[in-house]
Amino acid sequence: MLIKKHQYLAFVLPAVFFILLIIVVPFLIGIYYSFTDSNGLRSSFIGWKNFEVLFQDSTFLQSFWLTVKFSFVSVILINLVGLAFALIVTSHNNRLTKSLRTIFFMPNLIGGILLGFIWQFIFTSAFQAIAAAFHLDFFKGWLSNPSTGFWGIVILFVWQMSGYIMLIYISFLNAIPKNTIQAAVLDGAKATQIFFFIKLPQLAPAFTISLFLTLANSFKLYEQNLALTNGGPYRSTEMISMYIYNTAFVNFQQGYAQAAGIILFLCVTIVSFIQLALSRKREG
Amino acid sequence: MKKSTKILLGFLFGIIALFWFYPFIIVIINALKGKRGIFQNPLWFTRDFTFSNFKTAYQALDFTSSFFNSLVITVASVIVITLVSAAAAYALSRVKGPFSSILYYLCAGTMLIPFQSIMIPLLSLFGKVNFLNRTSLVIMNTGLSVSLSIILFYGAFQGVSKTLDEAAALDGAYPFKTFVYIIFPAVSPMTGTVVILNAMKIWNDYLLPSLVVNKDGMYTIPLKMYSFFGETNSQWQLALAGLVLSMVPIIILFLLLQKQVMTSVTEGSVK
């Protein structure tokens, strides 16, 4: 053994310290919190009550279903757009496709708060101008209506994430051996056949990765939600992260909010285990 | 493919790209206008043209101070994260045993926990000892990022042959020296990835800083942008100029390191 025991500890202990202090300890305290009526100052143990109340709290249930609906819609759209972009930028290797790659990826650099404000301007001022110029009611008052407000967050999120997911698809597309495709072309395969029978099967792992990345990210979405609609009108576009934040830091029901946080954790964990099981199954 | 279809496709792709890029354009165009110009036509340039919004926004955002707060917090966090996680990952990759496996699974497990599920106890923990400032933000950023960074580094160290360690040990080098001078430099591409991924995340973060350093003199760019936006009260020309200022640093950095950024982002998610 080259590394002695005390040296080993010197290497790993700082990391262990940070993980325990910032994640493990708060997580354990959090589990206890979720069984209390803590308001940040005082707390007493109340058993399962928070969870019982949560499942009858219409605001919570609404934000939970909104998050599920949002995740479902954005996962599909982001993967479709991301895959389309990946196919576009790998179709030729020239200056145009190189700059397309940059442009498609750029929204991903910007933080959620800034993204939310950019799109708030588009949905209010720019859309209003389009509505007025072409007499299209479709473009009127997007953020003052629950359903178009929902689609506003979806559009923002698709704009932000597609370029990221594109990169994952590109890396898998590039891993397909060139001569496989050349052989197919020699055998007279059409572009659509090459896509469906050669590229698509090779993209299966990329699909799993992208699917769950988008899913996890949309479950945790907060800043975009805050800057674009701030949950409005009337908490109708408030997703689960924002629900937790507002319950804990605006209404000071910290124990109750923590119970919702535990439910969020369980959802993310279940989704991750499904992903793990799926990729294991494919490899095995 | 025929030449005409090629041109047609290029044209189509160009339109898609323009459409995708248009939100940036529209922000810049309207940041260069007065209030009236935005009202007349927010979609394109009008006669109303001015640079003065940038000056106002720069002062209102207290941009020099917010920029340096963001910079100091990001740089400090990234340095600590990189050193702590590289050291731990090195030991994990060289010493196999129950403790190493437990630690590896601890990293994988803690990555599952969403920040929103621990933010309330985390905040009350640090609030109780009255330790909410830039230093504690760096500590929290580190704790939240080491797990993924250790796993990324671990993969890279596995790829570095152990004969290098053995040769260094024969030459009389201690593990610490071997690590600093031989093994750590050998994984510099992964170091680049870890630095870029964490820097992007921390630079853009809003939620955690809003809970920890939401006070005068400590504001980061996203925090200041959020409060400035509330103050501008639908004076879009100022808000948009502020947005442009806030986006400029990261976009410049991206254009300089484009290839490296895109590789890092891919590696960070595929591994």
From TrEMBL, chain A:
Q: Which Gene3D superfamilies match?
A: MetI-like (1.10.3720.10)
Spans through the membrane: 12-35, 64-89, 109-130, 150-173, 194-216, 256-278
Q: Which UniProt keywords apply?
A: Cell membrane, Membrane, Sugar transport, Transmembrane, Transmembrane helix, Transport
| Domain called ABC transmembrane type-1: residue spans | 64-275
**Localisation per UniProt entry:** Cell membrane
Quick check: keyword Transport in the entry?
A: yes
GO cellular component terms attached to this protein's record: plasma membrane
Q: What is its main location?
A: membrane
Q: Which SUPFAM superfamilies match?
A: MetI-like
Bilayer topology term: Multi-pass membrane protein
Protein name per Swiss-Prot or TrEMBL: ABC-type sugar transport system, permease component
Where would one find coiled-coil regions in this protein? Answer: none
PANTHER family in the cross-refs: BLL4140 PROTEIN
Similarity comment: family membership: Belongs to the binding-protein-dependent transport system permease family.
User: Which InterPro entries does this one have?
Assistant: MetI-like, MetI-like_sf, UgpAE/MalFG_permease
| One GO term of the biological process aspect | transmembrane transport
CDD domains in the record, alphabetically?
TM_PBP2 (cd06261)
Native source species: Liquorilactobacillus hordei DSM 19519
TrEMBL record, chain B:
- GO CC, alphabetical: plasma membrane
Q: Which domain of life is it from?
A: Bacteria
Q: What subcellular locations does the record give?
A: Cell membrane
One Pfam family assigned to this protein is: BPD_transp_1
Where does the record place the ABC transmembrane type-1 domain?
67-257
Q: Which InterPro entries match?
A: MetI-like, MetI-like_sf
Gene Ontology BP terms: transmembrane transport
Q: Which UniProt keywords apply?
A: Cell membrane, Membrane, Transmembrane, Transmembrane helix, Transport
Location, primary (coarse class):
membrane
Q: How does it sit in the membrane?
A: Multi-pass membrane protein
- Span-the-membrane segments of this chain are 7-32, 67-90, 102-126, 138-157, 178-200, 236-257
Task: Indicate the family of this protein.
Answer: Belongs to the binding-protein-dependent transport system permease family.
Q: What is this protein called?
A: ABC-type maltose transport system, permease component
Q: Which organism is it from?
A: Liquorilactobacillus mali
